[in-house]
Design a protein that fits this description.
Radius of gyration: 23 Å
Structural class: mainly alpha
Shape: globular
Number of helices: 11
Largest sheet: none
Number of strands: 0
Length: 264
């Protein structure tokens, strides 16, 4: 009899937990919809040449074939990033479903779109990963590796564009060409920086650790030891994750081509 009561209590607890999780998901969905509506309204308000009517008429008058292709392209853009992140997480031992990886992708793209210099995308993506049980160090490592492949994909596509569209490049003025070539140099340097960050990223944790220690000594940071403990765990997770991914060449190739297809 006690065994049946215990089972009944367990079932009720699980049901309550499912109900709470479902309510949280519903709240997040409503918040996301409100954010989306507020963002669209703000963009339209700040742009003098755009209105709901103009947008509606533009969609109605657009070529339906190209419109459908653009929607498919947008879906693929989101899907390819989700695939890249899923490959990286799986290689690190954190296999997450397609829908969860789509959330990481859409949060990255959405918050990149509404924050200055696209600065909010990756932190938002990392937040949802951590919420799903992925350690912060692992989430950070996966996002850095994906950023490397994203940068390399842009460089490769740029080189292809230069060779296949040389006549278009020639049509630019000298000053414009200088800016284009400077852009290639800047992207190459960024790619090199991201690779070094992947290989020596643990040193960044050491630097943050020193800052926390100094702030703790001055009484600015409370619970210094607890923060250092969290940083040390994140550092170890980050280092182990980057080493595991960098040694898995198939995953690196798969992530690169996912980014290449996404940008293309």
């Amino acid at each position: 009899m006690n065994e049946y009561k215990q089972q009944d209590i367990t079932i009720k607890k699980n049901y309550s937990r499912i109900s709470i999780d479902g309510n949280k998901n519903n709240i997040w969905m409503v918040v996301s919809l409100l954010l989306a509506v507020a963002t669209i309204r703000l963009v339209i308000k700040k742009s003098g040449n755009i209105s709901i009517n103009v947008l509606y008429n533009t969609i109605l008058s657009a070529n339906k074939g190209w419109l459908i292709l653009s929607v498919l392209a947008s879906a693929l853009y989101v899907g390819m990033e989700g695939l890249a992140l899923r490959l990286l997480l799986r290689s690190a031992g954190y296999n997450r479903g397609r829908m969860k990886c789509l959330i990481y992708s859409t949060s990255d793209i959405y918050f990149s779109a509404i924050t200055p210099s696209a600065s909010g995308g990756q932190p938002a993506s990392a937040y949802f990963m951590i919420r799903d049980g992925v350690p912060g160090g692992v989430a950070g490592a996966c996002l850095v590796v994906n950023l490397i492949m994203y940068t390399l994909a842009i460089i490769v596509l740029g080189i292809i564009a230069l060779f296949t569209g040389s006549s278009s490049v020639k049509s630019f003025g000298s000053s414009s060409k200088i800016v284009i070539y400077l852009g290639f140099v800047a992207l190459t340097l960024l790619a090199a920086f991201f690779v070094s960050l992947m290989l020596t990223g643990s040193k960044m944790f050491d630097l943050i650790n020193k800052i926390v220690v100094r702030l703790g000594e001055k009484g600015i940071v409370k619970r210094k030891n607890r923060i250092i403990e969290i940083l040390e765990k994140a550092k170890n997770d980050y280092k182990a994750c980057t080493e595991m991914i960098s040694q898995n060449h198939k995953i690196m190739v798969g992530v690169f081509f996912s980014n290449l297809l996404q940008r293309a």
